[in-house]
Amino acid sequence: MDSAAELSKWILLCLYLSQYALARRILDEPRIHFLNTDDSVQNNHPGLKTYCHNATSKYLTYMWRTLQMHLNINSDSYILYDGKTPQEIHQKYDENDKSWSLNLFDTGKHRQFKINPFEDVCIGIYIDSPSESVYIMTLKETRINVWKLTMMVTGIIVFWCAKILSRNSLFYYACGIILGVSLSVIILIYVTGKLIPRGKTMYVIFAASMSFYIAKTLWENMQLIIMQYREWMMWYVLVTSLISFVICYRFGPVTNPRTKQIIEWFLQLVGLALIYHSSHFHEASFSCCIIVILFYNFPKAAFGQAKRYWQHVFPEKRKLINEDQYRQEGIRQTRKALKGLQNYCFSPECNPWKTVLKLKDPIRFARFMEGESHLLEDEIEEHEEETSKILEKGEYTDDDDDDDDDDFF
Prior knowledge:
The chain is of the alpha+beta class. Helices cover 62% and strands 11% of the residues. The protein is built from 16 helices and eight strands. A four-stranded mixed β-sheet has the order 1-3-7-5, with helices on one face. A four-stranded antiparallel β-sheet has the order 2-8-4-6, with no helix packed on it. The longest helix has 27 residues, at 2-28. It is a multi-pass membrane protein. Residues 379-409 are annotated as: Disordered. The chain crosses the membrane at residues 146-165, 171-191, 203-226, 232-250.
């Protein structure tokens, strides 16, 4: 009996020590993790764990940068909290423990969290069950988010083409059909609302909650719904589109100029909203909105200013020419100057008598004005002889070429 009692004491002591070691290990485990790009943290114990990312510096190269936290877990029994700091996460956690309330941060099955890379962000995960507490949190980076870039390009196109779209019949019918298909969900909510107890307050609460729930459910399960209920979805969209087209055709496109102007302004506001929300770097996206507005309203001045700024930042490099190009350019510029002189002398601005008084050889000038060469044969032969003598003596060197090129520019 003594040996059995002694054995039971040792077993109880071992169990106590193991539980103490496990509790000490849980307490010693860090509860706050600061993640960087491509970091992964595995959790094996229940309780509240906070995962944070510190804000990064803002550069134009990070304009379409996005970060996403991935939660790899096989259970749905967890509660999420979000905030700016770990203290805010713990405050929300404590408030949730003190009294029962509707937890707006509990997003259920969400396992991907898009965060702003330029702000301090923290996400808290609380799991009560030890058997379901195993999960991995990973931070992934996308340097250029294609969806964000597409939003900006779409916003610029919508803003720039708002005037054309507001006066286009095809755009009118397309928007009418899309709006009709979307608003058909409200009809379903209205019909469903007839089944609940009467009362304006209850109806408003139900309509709001149902709208949010249906939109959220459709968005999260869109691919599954399309795959499993393909025929139903096709007939639903086809019927609602046909009804919307009939209604739009009955009233016809917009003809009032002021209504068209209002539609144009609305489209431009939509375009600016898309541009602004296309990046977490809101200062840069807001600057893009200003640039688009300036280019749209003052195209010539804006393009001229942009061209001058570009030439100032990236000036054109001087291109040196060789000897043959130098001679050809001299001949071309001489012909151009002589042609300009002839045009001026034929114009009413020129006084021929005053011009003749200033000339040493008016007859030669008159022949030049009639189309003859401005050089005499003796002058041409003398120039060729001097040129050949210079080339024979080697006085015309590469240094002279460089000096001539510098003088030319």
